[in-house]
Write a structure and sequence with these properties.
Layout (H helix, E strand, L loop, with lengths): L1 E4 L8 H12 L7 E4 L11 E3 L4 H10 L2 E4 L3 H9 L3 E4 L13 H11 L4 E2 L3 H11 L11 H11 L3
Parallel strand pairs: 1-2, 1-4, 2-3, 4-5, 5-6
Length: about 160
């Protein structure tokens, strides 16, 4: 099963759902697809689309999915990495008015360059990433919280 998450902010991401829908129509995606669409309105009889669900239901879907396709939200990516999930990140982009800036591209590039996730930018690269995901083994995620807290403490003179 593939889980697609678009986050819970008030930002649309129709482009990602359309990419997934197109790959289903092409026969590239044969698995069942669940989409947590948030503020994005989209209808497809090929996917199970819902706006929001509670955390328990979300965690159950995350646990069951083989691949997570997600926006560039750090919280979503980190929680899935901790669960050892195969993740494909697709960033919201400012040029499509999906976000105010391109910080999600930077987030996805950072996680991807570290071998933690795969990335895609359009339908063609999503198709490639889905094929790569079959054999992809993400590197283990190591939190950097301790160093980050120490740095903040140093800056505050603690």
């Amino acid at each position: 099963m593939i889980l697609v998450t678009l986050g819970t902010q008030d930002k649309h991401f129709t482009r990602l759902i359309m990419m997934v829908d197109e790959l289903i129509k092409q026969g590239e995606i044969k698995e069942e697809v669940y989409v947590q669409a948030g503020s994005t309105s989209y209808h497809s009889d090929k996917m199970k689309i819902f706006d929001y669900i509670d955390m328990e239901a979300y965690e159950k879907l995350l646990d069951q999915c083989d691949i997570l396709i997600t926006h560039g939200g750090v919280g979503t990516i980190v929680s899935a990495l901790k669960d050892g999930k195969k993740i494909i990140g697709v960033a919201r982009e400012a040029r499509y008015k999906e976000h105010h800036n391109d910080h999600q591209k930077e987030i996805i590039e950072t996680f991807s360059s570290q071998g933690l996730i795969l990335k895609a930018e359009d339908t063609a690269s999503l198709k490639v990433a889905l094929h790569q995901a079959k054999n992809f083994v993400p590197k283990p995620f190591v939190s950097n919280n301790r160093n980050f807290i120490a740095l903040i403490g140093k800056e505050l003179g603690l």
